[in-house]
Amino acid sequence: xxxAKAAASSGGGGKAAKKKKWSKGKVKDKAxxxxxxxxxxxxxxxxxxxxxxxxxxxxxxxxxxxNGSLARVAIQHLERDGLxxxxxxxxxxxxxxxxxxxxxx
Length: 105
Known about the structure:
Largest sheet: 3 strands, antiparallel
Shape: elongated
Radius of gyration: 28 Å
CATH architecture of the domain at 39-98: Orthogonal Bundle
Order of helices and strands: HHEHHEE
Number of helices: 4
Structural class: alpha+beta
Distance between the termini: 95 Å
CATH topology of the domain at 39-98: Arc Repressor Mutant, subunit A
Oligomer: single chain
Helix content: 40-55%
CATH class of the domain at 39-98: Mainly Alpha
Number of strands: 3
């Protein structure tokens, strides 16, 4: 009986001597962005995006919750239509701004 009590008490002490485990770190949730454009999002892009002061692929992904490739294509269409104008052309990030004069410029 005394041996059982001693074993039980020493078992509890053994847990405190265990090595500390490192934290697993924070896990970021996977973004659920649209892969294809639906009509409301398409209309929203052509209505809202030309009013943004600073336009980039990252901004469209964050605000409109679209895929990166969709954001690039939308930016190309807006530039072709003259709704936005390019500020910086870099292979990593294309930066645009709204066209002040619209299509007339």
